Amino acid sequence: MERKYTDDEIIRRVWDVLEIKNLMGRHAYFHAYDMHEAEICELWVSDESHQKTASFGQNWGYQVGIETIRSNYVDQNLAWHRAALSAICEKDSSVAHKSENLGIGTMLIHTLTTPYVEVAGDGRTAQGMWYSPGQVTVAGPDGVECMWMYERYGVDFIREQTGWKIWHMFIGTDFIVHPGTLMRDVPVPDEEASVSAPEGLDITIPMQAYSARHNFSEYPYIPQPYEVFDPKRGNGPEGNPAYKGYGAQTEGGTLQ
Amino acid sequence: MELYTTEQLTERWEAHNEICNLVGRFSFYELLRDTETIKRRLWCEDAEGASLGLNDGYYIGIAEIRKYYDAVKASDLCKAAIAKDRHHDVFEGKAADDIIGVGSLMVLNLTTPVLEIAKDMKTAKGLWSFMGGSVEHHAPGGPSAVNRWGRIGIDFVKESTGWRIWHMIVAVDFEAPMGENWVMPNIFPEPLIPFTMQRKNHELYHERRVYTSFPEVPVAYGTFAETFSYGPEDN
Q1: How far apart are CA A235 and CA B68, in angstroms?
Q2: For chains A and B, what is the number of CB pairs under 8 angstroms?
């Protein structure tokens, strides 16, 4: 039987959706502005129990636990910037090797469109889906690479004392193409090809979490109205139909 | 975290909707090249210090902003006259004003919103990312089609006629021919009319551009005095 809400509950649920959309907008800008540390601190879960199960998934698998996410998103990202800057400075002496130049020539935005947000009946969690037409531009010693990057976002949110926070985020990349390239010239992903994460990333659960081979993936799931959060329908690894269980580090093959 | 009553949340939700519609209207009236509606019905009438910022400067005061839109209209009329001349069989009997916008497609897809309404409900501020572009068939320099991406920061003010645009900053990251990358020199044409205040607000993308966090992301606030402005005073 469909739950009936009071007027007060309805308007608060409506406002929850607006706050979640704002939260995701902030995520997009903090990422575009290279404010990754601020993003982890302000937008991602801060309760210890939620931080243990926080996850960030992409085509090549999942990072689990906020410290793993932080070490990749903040520390490894900084390491990449440093390496790129050193290489650029070596080739172009007009570029000064200073912190203000970290990320020089980088520009990206993963826009968020077509939002769909469901707040749980119990009001404690929410799930959202967005489509992201984006662009990523990276500079190196040999020049600049520009890419259109189209992706699908599935995100679980949880309500904490200070408001809604990102709990599990999954981003499935549908295609990456250089401007001016015909899509028909982009190779179709090989069925059996292993999907490798960029070098330097620590992936807790390496797996083929998403593939654009058939231009169709049921996952991440379109949110449906729900009462209580179920990890098997969530955007963490347990919700992925290809998930076979965590490795030997945990009992029973399930995520702690 | 602020705690609002049911009535307050309802009022704030209605304001949120009205502002989203205002921004949507702005985008669609840009598409229709209807600068009259934009300047008369979307921008503020009474609020002091209205400003329209572009990458290289600001128009300050509603009178200057209206002059800017008049210049946009004059440019559109010029293109309409070219269209009329090229296709006189199609547009015979029509004045340039009747066919303004012919041959132009100006798309301003507004995405990735962050919108905060002040606690006092007198102002609001929002940030959007636009992925857009334009196609021009009848520009004096010849046909063109460009991708144009960037961000828009807007302060809104509640006037007697409803929510209106108060300060707007349009920060373009790149404007590049469709089908090409955006590393080639991004150069803006000269502004249609001189800026009231010339200032480098935002650089177009180039290979040596450093990260920028402009325009700033809105945060929840009580009154406008407690937050930053998307006008020139806080840039």
Answers
A1: 47
A2: 105
CATH 3.10.450.50 at B6-234, yes or no: yes
Q: Which of B38, B29, B136, B133 is nearest to B80 (CA)?
A: B136
Nearest CB partner across the interface for B1, out of A24, A103, A162: A162
Asked casually if ipTM beats, i.e. exceeds, 0.90, the reply is yes
3-state secondary structure of B116: strand
Residue whose C-alpha is closest to residue B52's, from B42, B38, B64: B64
Angle at alpha carbon of residue A80, lines to A77 and A86, rounded to 5°:
140
* pLDDT (mean) for A16-37: 98
Chain B nearest-CA distance from A220, in A, is 20
> Domain spanning A7-75+105-187+198-253 has what CATH number?
3.10.450.50
Nearest to B22 by CA among B159, B133, B131: B159
**Helix or strand run (H / E) with residue B145:** strand B144-159
**Side chain identity at B187, as an amino acid letter?**
I
Give the pLDDT confidence of A154-212 residue by residue, as tens digits. 999 999 999 999 999 999 999 999 998 988 888 877 765 556 888 899 999 999 999 88
